[in-house]
Each structure stands twice: as C-alpha cells, then as structure tokens.
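From the methods appendix. Each design record in this collection lists the tokenized structure first, followed by the designed amino acid sequence. Records were kept in a plain field format so they could be parsed without special tools. The example shown here is representative of the layout used throughout.

RECORD:
FOLD TOKENS (136 positions):
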C-alpha cells in the first residue's frame, strides 16, 4: 500500500515534497535576516547629523561632491533632484515634513552643515526625515 508500482515509497515522495516546499517558504526569511556586522538604523530616533550636502544623482553616479561640484549640485537641487547629506562615510536622503527641502538646502550644496531629524529606512535607503537645519 505504501509502495508505488516502481517500488518507490509514496511516503518518501511525500516527505521530499513537503521538505522542498518548506525550504522554499523559509529561504526568503533566511536572506532577509540581518547580515552580521551591519549596523542597524535606530529608526524613529531623533538624530543630529553634520555633513556635506550633495545632490544624490551626481553623487551616486560619479561621487561628485565638494567645492568643485557645488554650483552644479545647487542647480540640480534647485531643479528638484534628491538631496543627501554625507557624514562619516554614510549617505542619508534628506526630506522635510514629508516633502522635499530643496529650496532650503540648495544654498548649502557642497558645504558642511548640521541637520536634525528622525531616522527612517526602507531596505538599504537611510533617510533623515522631518529634517531641519540646526543654526549655530
């Protein structure tokens, strides 16, 4: 009764099918697990970041930053390009209260400033939201 005509156990076939199905279900969870050694963002935490304001398009494309790129970055930021702040080797997307801060940040392109806001992350995109410029 437990054997098929080719003498292979139906129970064995069933066990293999269940094991394979379980592996398919569980494997994405293993890939989603946090990689060892990676820093986890403390999301929803208030954070103050000091760094250089960059336009993320040129920064991501060809690492453009600094005084040599400041006028181009200001144009890109004024034109609506995404704005970031680079601090201690990390880059954060910067947004205000669920809206861009391009008008306020364009004049700081290529310069070091301090921003305060709430950390957020979706996947590998760290963001400083509800950001505001800290005046010194």
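DESIGN:
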């Amino acid at each position: 009764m437990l054997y098929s005509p080719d003498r292979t156990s139906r129970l064995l076939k069933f066990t293999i099918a269940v094991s394979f199905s379980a592996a398919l279900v569980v494997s994405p969870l293993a890939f989603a697990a946090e990689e060892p050694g990676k820093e986890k963002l403390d999301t929803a935490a208030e954070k103050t970041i000091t760094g250089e304001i960059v336009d993320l398009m040129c920064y991501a494309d060809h690492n453009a930053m600094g005084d040599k790129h400041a006028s181009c970055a200001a144009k890109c930021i004024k034109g609506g390009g995404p704005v970031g702040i680079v601090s201690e080797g990390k880059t954060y997307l910067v947004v205000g209260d669920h809206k861009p801060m391009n008008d306020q940040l364009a004049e700081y392109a290529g310069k070091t400033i301090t921003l305060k806001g709430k950390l957020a992350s979706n996947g590998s995109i760290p963001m400083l939201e509800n950001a505001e410029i800290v005046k010194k």
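APPENDIX NOTE: The CA atoms of residues 54 and 80 lie 13 Å apart.
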